[in-house]
Every structure is written in structure tokens, then in C-alpha cells.
Amino acid sequence: MRESKPATQYLDTAIALLGRVRDEETENITAAGTLLADTVVAGGRLFAFGAGHSSLAAQDVVYRAGSLALMNLLAVPGAVGVDVMPATLGSALERVDGLAAAVLDSSPATAGDALVIISLSGRNALPVEMAMNARALGLKVIGVTSLAYASGPDAPRSRHASGTYLRDHCDIVLDSKIAVGDAELDHEGVDAPFASASTVTTSALMQATLATCAATLADRGIQPPLLRSGNVDGGHDWNAKVFAEYRDRIFYQH
Predict the structure, then answer these.
(1) Would you call 189 exposed, middle or buried from its count of C-beta atoms within 10 A (0-12, 13-18, 19+)?
(2) Hey, which residues does 9 pair with through a beta bridge?
(3) pTM (2 d.p.)
(4) Which residues contact 50 (CB under 8 A, 6 or more apart)?
């Protein structure tokens, strides 16, 4: 079988990006995981939000085998994927002023909880206002974003009226290391760059953060409320016990 050069290039690029995340973000990941553990110990609830494709990494840690049962998805109807018609509506909703406040006001999130906000660019109104309003309500905010979008010669301007980015309204920021445009490869005869990698690094940041949270809880003598796969024997029974113990902090069961 002939080697696929673009495939090798992409995988090498993804590995290099993950290496940067490991080498440059470990301290921030530790801080983020500790913040989540502190929230759990204090009786708070955990939420994750992402708009568009940034929602993929948020959804990946909600009701997920090997993940914390306490992580809830904070969903904005029409803005969590490409399931709306037309798909471009989701991008348009990210720019609507006031939508984040309405979502938070109708959600169970309250002071003492923690919210992870994922936005590659961090420039649209929805993630910026989500962070601003969450902190005003007394939530701790972890932002997962690419700092390249908020600084440097290629950085696009914020679309929020304040001129600020997601990174400006977070207690902790995790940098996904993705270049502006989220397309890693070029090829002769192809007019546009292609092959995005943001989901790779963003998901890795989320999983590393939750792994840190689980280990931190265990180190404090607390059994982390983890879910097991429903496809292994005893998985459903295990999960049922976790759901029963933490029912007041799990909202996708209601």
C-alpha cells in the first residue's frame, strides 16, 4: 500500500500540536482540574458549553464512559452543532447579543458552580457574554480557546461590543494552540488550506483536565463520580448508583 503523504503530514501535525499542549499547558491543565475538584468538594455543579464545532469537545465529556458524571452540557438551541437548517444559522446565533444571558438565566447554573466554555476563536458575542455573565453570577469559568485569535498579526477583531475575547473573562485559560483559520495543510492544486485540528487538541485538553480532577479527588480521599461504559458487564448498575448518589447535580437525567 502506498503511503498517503497528506495523511502522514496531518497526523504528524496533530502529534506536534499535542506535544505543545503537553509541554506548554500542563500547569494550566492542573489548575483547571483542581478548580473542578474544588467545585465538586464544595457541592457545586459542573457545566460545559461550546458553540458550533467547539461543542464537540464539550459533548464528549458529558454522559461519557470514563468521564465525570457531574459534567452537564449547557446547550444553546441551534448553536451546538450542524443539526439546524440551514447549518449557517448556528454561526449566526453565535453573534447574537443577549442570547448567553437568556440561556444562563434559564439554566440550573448558579453561584459556586464551574463552567467550561469552549470557543476556538473566542471572538463571538455568545462565548464572550457567556463568560462575562457566568462570572457575574458567581461561577468559576475555564476557557478553552486559541490565543492566536486574540493576539498576533493575524488575529481577527473581537465581534463583541466590548472588543474583548473569551480569554479576558476567565479564571483559567487553556490554549488549544490552533492557528487562525483552523486548517493545517496545503497542497499543490488546492486553493484553500484544509484539515482542521482544533477538535483534536481541544478534546485532549478537556480529557486531561477531567483526568486531573478525578485524580485530585482521589488524592483527597474522595471517590470521583466516574461513569463506566454501558457495554461492559456491570456498567449500567455502576452508573445507576452514581446517578442516585449525585442526582441533585446531574441534569441530563431529569
Answers:
(1) exposed
(2) none
(3) 0.91
(4) 56, 57, 58, 59, 80, 117, 118, 119
